[in-house]
Amino acid sequence: MAESAKRSWKQEPLVWLMIGIPAVAVIVGMILLTLAITTYDGLVVDDYYKHGKQINRVLERDRLAHELGLAAALEIDANGELRVRFDPEVSVIPGGNIELALVHSTIPGRDQSLVLTRVENRLLEGRLDLEGEGRWNLYLQTEDWRLTGSLRYPDQDRTRLTPNYEDG
Q1: Which of 164, 166, 121 is nearest to 141 (CA)?
Q2: 123-127 and 112-118 strand pairing
């Protein structure tokens, strides 16, 4: 009859399994805690009341643009020269500084904003550098009114800017 050899606890697989499962759980928990603390969740709004008031202000700007009958066409050439031409039926463009905000649909770091120069009565110009390709949401705005549109660059080089408002 063969004698059974005594094995050390270090050689038993079941012992390592009982030690390994809790150890892996602790390590994964520490990694998740570190990620939760160090990463920024930009989708959470801290002040809901203030955010709600801003939404109402934006709706008022859209309504005013609709009432004034504002609409425009935007064109970008290969050199990044930008032209915004208001429709012929637009007689007055209220406001001083007219800003164009380009908000990338997925990458906030690519957002841009520029103040356009009034060249003629209904023509504005500016220069921008769109990094890479993608879809941009466009906001042509002053303190009082706002027009919106979207552009898929470089596939599109022109788009319409209209008020985001409907009578109802």
Answers
A1: 164
A2: antiparallel
- pLDDT tens for the 168 residues of the chain, in order: 455 678 888 889 999 999 999 999 999 999 999 999 998 766 666 666 666 666 667 788 888 888 888 899 999 888 888 999 999 888 777 777 889 998 888 887 888 889 998 888 888 899 988 777 888 899 998 888 889 999 888 888 889 999 987 776
Classify each residue of 118-154 as buried b or exposed e, where b means 16 or more C-beta atoms within 10 Å of its C-beta.
Answer: eeeebebebeeebeeeeebebbbbbeebbbbbebebe
162: its two tokens? 């209209």
Q: How far apart are CA 86 and CA 17, in angstroms?
A: 72
Alpha-carbon distance of 124 to 128, in angstroms, equals: 13
Q: Residue 36 is inside which H or E element, if any?
A: helix 13-38
Other beta carbons within 10 angstroms of residue 69's beta carbon come to 13
Contacts of 16 (CB under 8 A, 6+ apart): none
